[in-house]
Amino acid sequence: MKTTENISLSGYAFTIETDAYAELGTYLNDIKAAFKNNSNADEIVSDIEERIAEILREKCVSGMVVDLNMINDIKQRIGNPKDLAQDDTETATEETKTETPDPKRSWQTKRLYRDVENKVFGGVCSGLGAYFGLDKVLFRIALIIIFFITFICTIDGDGPYFFIPVLAYIGLWIAMPAARTDEQKREMTGRPVDLEGYKDNGFDFKKEIKETSESPAIKAITRVGGIFIGIMLMLMGFGGMAGSVFIPSTSTIVSHEIADSIDEWGIHSAEEQFVSDLLMNNETFWVMLVVIVGIMSLWFIYNGVMLTFNLKYPSWRPGLVIFISWVISIFVFAVYVGKIAIEAFGTFVIIA
User: Per-residue pLDDT tens for 62-83?
Assistant: First the structure.
């Protein structure tokens, strides 16, 4: 029988055997000694403790006690601080002999993952945001704008261009693995997974980890980009609102044009008859179109205002609610038109 201790590591509670507790304490003390000359020693040790807690959470199921084997495995995965200190000494000796400093090494290379914890659909945009260090909302808005631009081009052109952003998103969804483990989440944000990641003395841990988002350059770029996109969204939104007001008038104009065309050329197919009936004699069709354009415009205006004035998004995500409402309205519209088409083509008889 072994005695145990209850400990708290980075806010997580663990039950650990006494010999494992002593080994873990020695390991953390060695880490503190290895980084004692680093200006960010406290932040580094705190992050390593968080890394240890992440590994223990992976290993420990409910009620499991941390044993010595787990601690030894953690030491192998994270690294031996004594070896790290020895490497630094050897490197310093070599630099003294050659008197030629090595080029500054990077701290940690990020990897591209889908951020499934902050996803709306597949986590692609949130993963891109984490990789490039930008707000994930900017990527989502950019994707929506591209979708609408290609959708408009599809209406005015010959090909289904709106499939391009959809297929691109699906392709990234397939290509980008999901960040599910704690190690993958660290790689996604560029945080170290072992002691080698903290080895570079030229790396400012506090600045890069806790103050990157507060960097004046990043803040300026994000703010200017947010204002620009916000203004464009508001202009598109108000334009859409104005267009929805004129849609009833548009239906009257379209009806007159179709009537003149029928008088001059006649109707030669079931498809032409269906389109003319839909555009001339179906008020529900135009009402649904007004609703779709109105909801879309409201979404543009809402996000435009939030980005332009740098407002904090509410926790209940009204923008997402508006977007889902817009998707539902399109689905209802498509079902309604499809139902009318089935009824028309099921009863229409072409007279040769």
Answer: 678 888 899 898 888 888 887 7
Beta strand 4-9 with 12-17 is antiparallel
Residue for token pair 């400093």: 101
Question: What local confidence, expressed as pLDDT, does residue 159 receive?
Answer: 65
Label residue 113 by pLDDT band (50, 70, 90).
very high
Q: Do 161 and 283 sit in the same domain of this protein?
A: no
| 274 in any annotated domain | yes
Are residues 284 and 336 in contact, defined by beta-carbon separation less than 8 angstroms?
A: yes
The answer, as to whether pTM is greater than 0.70, is: no
Q: At what angle do helices 18-34 and 68-78 cross, to 10 degrees?
A: 20
Distance of CA 6 to the CA centre of its chain: 38
The rounded distance, in Å, linking the Cα atoms of 189 and 183 is 10
- Residue 137 falls within a domain, yes or no? yes
Find residue 14's DSSP bridge partners: 7
The per-residue pLDDT for 56 is: 87
Cβ burial of 316 (10 Å; 0-12, 13-18, 19+) is: exposed
Angle between helices 41-59 and 18-34 (to 10 degrees): 150
Q: Is 114 inside any structural domain?
A: yes
Domain final residue pick, 49, 67, 98? 98
Cα 311 to Cα 35, 217, 269, 307, distances in angstroms: 40, 20, 54, 7
**Which of 240, 244, 233, 239 lies closest to 145 in space, CA to CA?**
233
Q: Are 165 and 150 in contact (CB under 8 A)?
A: yes
Which residue stretches of 114-215 are H helix? Answer: 124-132, 136-156, 163-175, 182-189, 205
Instruction: Count the Cβ atoms, other than its own, within 10 Å of residue 129.
Output: 18
